[in-house]
Design goal:
With 123 residues, this protein is mostly beta strands. It has no helices and twelve strands.
């Protein structure tokens, strides 16, 4: 059953579908990651693409629940960030396509709010 989007803010970003699938930078049309449809409840993502564009994604749903802050790390399974509890895939960020990102994503199953950040590399 499709979920009803409550908040959707896309800045310099587009999604393959209404609330999931491949994510693209609007400036250079590069694929920057993949958002799993059914496993997340809320997403707040800010990133800087390799092309210099700064993008942002905010998504939640009418039936989204308040998440619980946690200090747990997302696990990585086949390049996907997954929930520590049940390894359900939440999101993939293609590190080769972005210089930095900051993300908060809530797992739909356990309501944990995972935070992940990657700073720009100094080279």
């Amino acid at each position: 059953m499709a979920r009803v989007v409550n908040n959707k803010e896309l800045v310099s970003t587009r999604l393959a579908t209404n609330y999931g699938g491949w994510m693209y930078c609007d400036k250079c049309n590069e694929n920057i990651g993949y958002l799993c449809y059914a496993t997340y409840d809320r997403l707040k993502l800010s990133y800087r693409c390799n092309c210099g564009s700064q993008g942002k994604v905010i998504l939640d749903f009418v039936d989204s629940k308040m998440g619980q802050e946690c200090n747990d790390e997302l696990t990585i399974v086949k390049n996907r960030f997954c929930c520590l509890g049940d390894n359900s895939p939440l999101i993939t960020i293609l590190d080769k396509k972005v210089t930095s990102y900051e993300m908060e994503i809530t797992c739909k199953a356990c309501n944990k709010i995972y935070k992940k950040r990657r700073n720009e590399s100094i080279s």
